[in-house]
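Because discrete structure vocabularies remain unfamiliar, we turn briefly to a single example record, giving the amino acid sequence and backbone structure tokens:
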Amino acid sequence: MTRAVRVRVAAVLAVLLALVGVPAAAWWTADGSLWTTVSAGTVPPPTATTCTTTGSVVLRSATVSWAAPTPAPARYRVTIAGGGQSTTTETTATQLVVTESLLGGLLGSILDLLLGGTTLQVSVQSVHASGWTSAPSNAVPVRGALLAGTGLAGVSCG
């Protein structure tokens, strides 16, 4: 076979391979480094958590309020803990009124309140729309204020 014939055969095979399409394999290597900084998003907690005793001498309640952080969260998670138990509720308001019935349900025993009560700690977390939560705010104390034999009832701050 002459050189001219071999060139023609090679050209025809190249054209056929180009028309048919054959998978190709490629690889490469590179050296180098890449540096980046990553930070996680945080949800700011509520600030200025306070407790104010409201109502009359006969029936008092404690209003726990807080300042909304910036940006404002979708809602707040309020945790009331004490006496080895805790309960959590969620609200979109920036305050929660703690009443005798809420304390009674939490403690499970009116006797605790009649004997001087248990001091509960109320803390608040911001909850982002994604479900992420902030660290808890500073807890404020709320105390049962039932006085045995007096008929006075309610709760107070501190």
Notes: DSSP finds three helices and eight strands in the chain. The radius of gyration is 35 Å. The beta strands are 47-55, 59-67, 75-82, 85-91, 95-98, 119-127, 140-144, 153-157. The first strand starts at residue 47 and ends at 55.
